[in-house]
Amino acid sequence: MRRKVTGIVGLWLFSCMVVMAADFWEEEEFTSWSDKDAAKMLTDSPWAKKVNIVMGGLSEQRNTGFTGGGGFGGGLIGGGGDGNSEFNSIRRMSVNVVWMNALPVRRAMVRQAIGENGAIPPEAEDFLTADDPFYTVAIVGLPPAFNALNQMLDAVKAATMLKRDDKAPILPQEVGFFSDSAESLVTAMFQFPRTDAISLEDDDVEFVTQLGPNTEVKKKFKLKDMSFSDQLFL
Questions:
Q1: CB 111 within 8 A of CB 25
Q2: With the C-alpha atoms ordered 60, 62, 66, 67, is the resulting torsion angle positive or negative?
Q3: CA–CA separation, 99 vs 45, rounded Å?
Q4: Do 209 and 189 meet the contact criterion of CB atoms below 8 Å apart?
Q5: What is the 3-state secondary structure (H, E, C) of the chain?
Q6: Is the pTM of this model over 0.90?
Q7: Confidence band (pLDDT; 50, 70, 90) for 7?
Q8: Which is higher by pLDDT, 79 or 29?
């Protein structure tokens, strides 16, 4: 009798551990995710990580516009500027690095658009099921001054890659900086071709870019955490 009870307790504890281990993106229909779940997917999940960066000496003149040449010299970063500059001192801030094309992230964006248990419109269905030839990584939450990097995309592109151990880095094909208005926070988008596919055997992948000499953004992602149902989602 004692052995039987012990076995039942063990099975119960095991089932509780399984339930506790399941993540909301694995077990629930995404339309029933809470607002908190959807926000968590986009800010604090295996596909979205916070990164602390240093932003030093961004010389965005209030009256004359952004200073700097075609590279990372001039008044872009690293001192310079005058007393009227918007950013002349070193600042630290947090941004989010997000794998935008990963299915769980797409689901979170649709869930935020339709509301809890909302109907999925045809255009959202197309968005969820569309094949995309790129891994798209975004830096979300940059200050408006970073819009000026649209003038020097070649320099940003040359400093950007997806790194894996013992393999050549994957280089971006497209780079851009976007915001709703001149005063809005900026999202930097980086598109990497999927021709050199990332697999679970790679263990992890690191996103690296340089937004000027003093503003490096680096984040490593564990691939096993970015998979479920025996499939990797990137």
A1: no
A2: negative
A3: 10
A4: no
A5: CHHHHHHHHHHHHHHHHHHHHCCHHHHCCHHHCCHHHHHHHHHCECCEEEEEEEEECCCEECCCEECCCCCCCCCCCCCCCCCCECCCCEEEEEEEEEECCCHHHHHHHHHHHHCCCCCCCHHHHHHHHCCCCEEEEEEEEECHHHHHHHHHHHHHHHCCEEECCCCCCECCCEEEEECCCCCCCEEEEEEEECCCCCCHHHCEEEEEEECCCCCEEEEEEEHHHHEECCEECC
A6: no
A7: low
A8: 29
Could you report the per-residue pLDDT of 189-216, keeping only the tens digit for each?
A: 999 999 999 999 999 999 999 998 788 9
